[in-house]
Amino acid sequence: ITLWSKDEQYGKALEDYEKALEIRLSIFGTNHSDIARSYYGLGDSYSNNGQHDKSIKNHEKALKIRLDIFGTNHSDIAQSYYGLGDSYYYNDQYDKAIENYEKELKINLDIYGTNNSI
Fold first, then answer.
1. Rounded to an integer, what distance in angstroms lies between the CA atom of residue 14 and that of residue 10?
2. Residue 115 phi/psi, 5° resolution?
3. CA distance linking residue 112 with residue 49, whole number of Å
4. Distance in angstroms (rounded) separating the CA atoms of residues 31 and 63
5. Residue 10 contacts by C-beta under 8 Å, 6 or more apart in sequence?
6. What is the pTM of this model?
7. How many separate domains does the chain show?
8. Where residue 9 sits, what CATH number does that domain have?
9. Cα–Cα distance between 108 and 118 in angstroms, integer?
10. Residue 118 lies in a domain
């Protein structure tokens, strides 16, 4: 899936992420880290495709699942806030982008400290 994104074949990446999500949902149900990973990938792919509203919705789904599973202070939560920040940024919603980037930064500082090159 990531190879499609690197090759800028975002439509194919979207198709593969949707298939992966469907398979994972049938195996794991709705509240599993692999489901969140699929929503995160869909969010990135929609963003790369210029569909920022869909990107935001998928990143929000990934974040909700990850918060349910991991709590508030986990690297996957930081990743979700970063993805949301990017989606809001590219959708010209700069205040929301900054808000999410700041949440991502705080979590990473809490986890890794200030002397780590993350």
1. 6
2. -100, 20
3. 32
4. 11
5. 4, 45, 48, 49
6. 0.87
7. 1
8. 1.25.40.10
9. 8
10. no
